[in-house]
Amino acid sequence: MAIQSQPKDIPVYIDPYSFMADIQVLSGNPVQNYNKDTNTYEPDRALIPCVFMPYVSVSDPEGVMNGIRDITGAEWYEGAPKADGSNRIVSGTDYQVSAAGKPQYSLTVKKNIDYNSPVEIHCILSFTDTRRNKQVNVERSIVLRTTIFDGKNYSLKLDKPASYTINPLAVTPAAEGKWIEEITAQLYSGSTPVPDANAAYWWEVLDKGVWREFYETELAFCVDGKNGGIWGKKLTIDARFMRYESFRCRAAYYNGVRPPSPSDDSLQCVTSIKVEMPKTLGVAIVQSKGFKVSATLATPVSFTCYIPYNKGYVGVEKDHLFAITWFVRSLKPGNQPIQAGSGRNCDFVPSSFGFDPNYPMQVYAEVKLYAETAAVMSGDSYVYSGDNLIVQPLYE
After folding, report:
1. Which residues, 6 or more positions from 40, have their beta carbon under 8 angstroms from its beta carbon?
2. Given CA atoms 259, 263, 265, 266 in this order, what sign does their dihedral have?
3. Regarding beta strands 67-69 and 381-382, do their DSSP bridges make them parallel or antiparallel, or are they unpaired?
4. CA 283 to each of CA 311, 313, 314: distance values in angstroms, whole numbers, following the listed order
């Protein structure tokens, strides 16, 4: 007679898997804009619906069910699922589940969402664990919300600070010697830039405490920013003709016909620009010739002017920003300084000034700094050479 041992279980170990589940946006946008100026939704979901689809991707250490899994079921809810299922979404005017032409278990949203009441859409999705042959349920959610596009929420910003200084020594002239300075404005709705097609801009200059439009003469040679007579968002100026100027930009939102002028001053920005040479400039002169002057004062002498700046010296390429005048004088009582030359270098023979050789002499350079550029005028008209306006720098 055979004998039998006690049965012993053979355990089967199934390594746990990990998965990632979410709600994909197949088309449309879960975020809308509500334009309070036109009382419309952008986009209008009645015309451009938003389509959601649940998905799940599995990482299986045993390799049995790796990758994206088929969705075997999905229940959609407006808000967190209630125990009685009263907020479960069914196909109707606002939503469609598994709509024609859309994937099975997808949700098509045709509902426009009030900007004060965002809606959280929940989905209980199902997929099959093929290793155990059992259904797995997972809950995920996505929020539908609306932002406001409102004239009261508009703001205007410039890409320049409220005030700043242009250092002529740091300017790199553009074509025709112009000192191009550009100021760009941008209209915003909240934090969103308003498209150029819906933003109107106007630029003005402060003149004796009053804002005014630019004169045609200014637009002709030192101000630019109009296209076909219409201001754009960018103001371009030739800073040579400025000393201290304030510019104002005003803006308005529009949809359709561009307004001829802003309805009020609620949207405006101002920037003030000062063109000024650095206050840290110095002057030094060095003698290069005639170190020993004869008793007849007939020895030629030479001097050079240097302009210290930022631990160095200003190069000769910037000489147009300085008006250097040389003076020589005898220290004999009653003698006045006499102009001896101009420019970086000064060469002269002391005897040519008739000085008394029994008294010492001095030489010095007076340096005037660039202040601004002025257009040459004849009466009330500007002077041109061909098509070019004749200008001259002013120093002080």
Report:
1. 34
2. negative
3. unpaired
4. 13, 10, 10
Residue 318's CB is within 10 A of a number of other CB atoms, namely 14
The pLDDT tens digits for 170-216 are 999 987 888 999 999 999 988 889 999 999 999 999 999 999 999 88
**Residues 372/240, Cβ–Cβ less than 8 Å:** yes
Q: Which residues pair with 249 in a beta bridge?
A: 203, 269
**pTM tops 0.70:** no
Residues 6 or more apart in contact with residue 194 via CB below 8 angstroms: 154, 186, 187, 188, 253
Q: Which residues pair with 59 in a beta bridge?
A: 18
Q: % helix / strand / coil in the chain, to the nearest 5? A: 10, 50, 40
- Rounded CA gap, 324 and 140, in Å? 78
Position 369 scores a pLDDT of: 94
CB atoms within 10 A of CB 383: 12
Please say whether the beta carbons of 303 and 291 come within 8 A: no
Whose structure tokens read 């350079």? Answer: 365
Q: Is residue 293 predicted with pLDDT exceeding 80?
A: yes
Give the whole-angstrom CA distance, residue 251 versus residue 157: 10
**pLDDT tens, position by position, 102-139:** 999 999 999 999 988 899 999 999 998 888 888 989 89
Q: Is the peptide bond before 262 cis (omega within 30 degrees of 0)?
A: no
The dihedrals phi and psi of 74, each to the nearest 5 degrees, come to -155, 135
Q: How far apart are CA 284 and CA 306, in angstroms?
A: 5
Output 158-162 pairs: Cβ under 8 A, ≥24 positions apart. Answer: 158/183, 158/184, 158/185, 158/186, 158/249, 158/269, 158/271, 159/183, 159/184, 159/185, 159/186, 160/271, 160/273, 161/271, 162/270, 162/271, 162/272
Integer Cα distance of 348 and 354 in angstroms: 12
Give the amino acid at 165. T
Structural tokens at position 76: 């959609």
Distance, CA of 166 to CA of 239 (rounded, Å): 8
- Is the pLDDT at 11 greater than 70, yes or no? no
Q: The tokens of 47 are what? A: 């015309």
Contact 267, 260 (CB under 8 A): no
Closest CA to 357 of 387, 338, 382, 331: 331
